[in-house]
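Problem: given the chain below (366 residues), write out its structure.
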Amino acid sequence: MDFIDLKTQQDRYRKEIESGIAAVLAHGRYINGPEIEKLETELAKFVGAEYAIGVASGTDALEIALRSLGIGPGDEVVTVPFTWISTAEAVALVGAKTVFVDIEADTYNIDLKLIEPAITPRTKAIMPVNLFGQMIDYTALNSLAEKHGLPVIEDAAQSFGATRDGRMSCADTTIACTSFFPAKPLGCYGDGGALFTSDAQLDEKIRTIRNHGGMVRHHHTLVGMNGRLDTLQAAILLAKLPHFAGETEARGRIGGRYSELLDGVCGTPAIEKGNTHVYAQYTIRHPDRDGLGKFLKERGVPTAVYYPKCLHEQPVFEELGYSLGDFPVSEKAAAEVISLPMHPFLSESDQDTVVEAIREYTNAGA
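Solution.
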């Protein structure tokens, strides 16, 4: 049983993928080839944003977003401690300070009630994370951000393809960032990412920063970076994109079946009203997470823990001055969450094997 089955996906789409790769090899434009512009057009159309900009990784996307907004030393960015390190890492890379606020226990997303008390005169952006595959209430957050004159940067690395009230993730904030890491709902075969905005000036600035700070060769107007998406990765994403809606539907169906079968056995993902969930990870809660993980491994069921330690507990962020106990909801989640096999090709028989093993372990400890 695979935790994420990329082999089956590749076999199903092999013809389109290999055709796209062959086209790049034929024209030889490995950097800034025609597939880049085509992918950006298709991504913007899919999401419903005016502009999409391909970049080298989801981490680069976050850093470029912050740079494009002029955020740097002396500034603060509000985000969560229960996420992958890239979120706060990007803030540190531009010289700004991360200000953490806790999450909601049921969705694992930022607790909107805690954001306003964390805003200071130095706050220059709010950067929520759509953890595990569903969006937060961006209508409410955008209203709060507008009240304080702040941009919102959506970290949509795990929510690409998700919707809220019919609106796609990456369509409703100042800037949105996603990742095309191979294990993401839409993944390439290496590192890749994208930014989305409907602001023409930000679009131009983002494109400038990702290309060493210049739109014209040998003319650099900003301090930029080498943040370009490779043409080969764009070709692979173009081959996968037509199948993505079907894969997203399958993820939702499989996630819903997990939740139905595991109801009352362990903590299952809560889906907010109006949301769809792409289940970048299907994550449950169990009071004996480590014991359950060991038991499942013995039964041939692969699992993963996202994330066993919060960011404020990481040595690299000690200088922020936080202590264990400052974010109890995040810390409790980090001690209890475990993610199960999830991909669009997961069979019901494999799902049943996973569920039966969890039931067996839980009942034995009852």
